[in-house]
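During the no-cost extension, the postdoctoral fellow (Dr. R.K.) reprocessed legacy sequence entries with the updated structure-token encoder. One reprocessed record is reproduced below for audit purposes.
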Amino acid sequence: MKNGLVFVWLVVMAVLLGVDRASAQEGTSAEKTIWDGVYTSAQADRGMALASQSCSGCHTPADWTGPNFIGMWSGGSISGLYATLSTTMPADNPGLLSPREYSDIMAYMLRLNEVPTGETELPSSDADLRSITVTIHHR
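Re-encoded structure tokens follow.
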């Protein structure tokens, strides 16, 4: 069952990423990348605690790290990841968490991928998230 849920999650992510990339090509341009310090250490700490409570039954930190993870989202805004998480996770109760909690978990995911912290928390509004591009490498 777990493999089936992972497959469904990956398909949904791919579809949403395609939609996000299409909207980016239609004129929505990101102002910064994930490498510009778009989350705080305290936010990632909250995200780690939330992931332990809400995600660890199906996922490990290894599911959210490495070039394959970042590569799935690269080229689009981070709003695609947020949309996927907030509409499909947790698998047994999608949308259960608050917008801030989903952003906190994304901050933890960024930390796991050694993306540097900054002075401002990762936002949870779609408009603000669309201004942040996911890239594999620092500029």
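The first strand starts at residue 32 and ends at 33. Helices lie at 2-25, 41-54, 67-73, 79-88, 99-112, 126-129. The remaining legacy entries will be reprocessed before the final report is submitted.
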